[in-house]
Amino acid sequence: SCRSLLFTTFPKPGFRLENHTLRTIEVVNEDLCRFQCYLEPNCVSYNFCEISQESGKHKCDLNNATIEHDEDLVKNESYIYRGAENACKKNPCKNNATCQARFTDRDYQCLCVDGSGFKGHDCDEGKESYNFISRANHMTSSAIWDKSARKKFLKVIGQTYLKGTSTIQSLASQ
C-alpha cells in the first residue's frame, strides 16, 4: 500500500514529544527528518533539533504518536515538534494489533498479532483457535457458550467421534 502523511502546516517550535520515540537519527535538515518519518511505517510525528551536532547534522526523533498524548509534549527550546493527521489516535485496531496511519483508503491499516488468529481490517474478525475453550463454561454439540456474558462465542463447525469421545475439528467465532 502507498502511504500518504499530511503534516500540520504549523509546527510547534520549542516543544518535543517524549516517550513515543521509535528511533533517533541524524539528518542534515528538517525536510529529511520529515522524509524519514514517511519511510518509517509507524511514524506519525517527529521532533527536529534545530541545534546541529558537531557533525553538522541534527537529531531527528521519529515518533509513533501525536499530541493526543499532550502530557508527553514537553517544552524544549532546541526542538520543533511536528505531527501528521493520525487516524490511529482513536485506537481503531483491536486485539493488540499495531495501527499504522495513512495506509489504504481508510487512512490506517492494522497489523494483526502473528499467531493470534485475528484478521480483518481492524483485526476484529473471527478467531479459529482452541484457546477460546479455556473461556468456556458451557459446551453443547453445536456451540461453546460464555454464560457470564450470556452469549455464544464459538460455533462448532465439525466434530469427529471416536469410541464415545468427541473431538472438535474446527471452530468459528460468533
UniProtKB/TrEMBL annotation:
Domain annotation Apple: ranges: 2-88
Gene3D superfamilies: Laminin (2.10.25.10)
Statement: the UniProt record of this protein carries the keyword Disulfide bond: yes
InterPro entries membership: EGF (IPR000742), Pan_app (IPR003609)
Disulfide bridges in this chain: 93-110
Domain EGF-like, residue spans: 84-124
Keyword Zinc-finger: no
SUPFAM superfamilies: EGF/Laminin (SSF57196)
Protein keywords: Disulfide bond, EGF-like domain
Protein's name according to its UniProt entry: EGF-like domain-containing protein
Organism listed in the record: Pocillopora damicornis
